[in-house]
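Consortium newsletter contribution from the modelling node. Members have asked for a concrete example of what our holo predictions look like. Here is one, prepared for the manganese (II) ion complex that several groups have been discussing at recent meetings.
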Amino acid sequence: MAIYIVGDIQGCYTGLQRLLEKIDFSPINDSLIAVGDLIGRGPQPLETLNYLHSLGDSFDTVLGNHDLHLLAIYAGIRKAKPNDKLDTLLASPTLKTHINWLRHKPLALMANQDTLVTHAGLYPKWSVKKALKLSLEVSEQLQGSHWKAFLGNMYGNQPCVWQKSLQGAERLRFIVNAMTRMRFIKNRDELDFNCKTSPDQAPVNLTPWFNVTNKKLNGNQKVVFGHWASLNGRTLLQQFCGVDTGYIWGQSMTLLNLSSDEIFSVEYQDQSKPVDT
Ligand SMILES: [Mn+2]
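And here is the predicted structure:
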């Protein structure tokens, strides 16, 4: 039995299937974990969710910003943009089932005893245990009867520094932003929401979150994350493994075999063209 962690799928169902074929994925023997952004911008959101949902207990995921965006569209808080490519999903009779399924997915989970999975990463002031606890605070909201009100308060860039004393909507907004949108940190502990480049092209006052010392992380612990396509997995650190390699942007989709530490990937193929077999 192997545990696989797959990078941002973003509605690229065909790419996902090519990747799973490559590893001979068996839903009976193996398990698949996604780093979030299951859908968004890619051409086959409905096929992607139908498939992942059908895997039952063999699949788990954390939520990414695009997944939360879908929930916000469903809740009437955001409007779908043409670039989201969500039309087939939004028109599907299975939409409600998928929405309820996603509402029960966390922002952070443990893939094994030492491996934390979140969409964007681990805020440098938090331990793994703390991240899991804060993820639960958001899950309570998402699963509760006031979930639409929670999503209505979720958007915004403030506060950008964590304080234990944060409460209510501000506290939840920071947790969501840190776990689903973070890339760079400035002034030691401040989330930056502007820069999306690779670290070598970023302004000097910005530090990738994984290069800010986290005193609460021990040497055995590992963080697997997605979200940052321009990083292309290059953290240069064993402890932090980026698996978003920008399939949706014409690059590749990546999967980590957590049991063996092997990386597998498939190159982008235009889905309008026939797929080689
Ligand atoms: Mn993302």
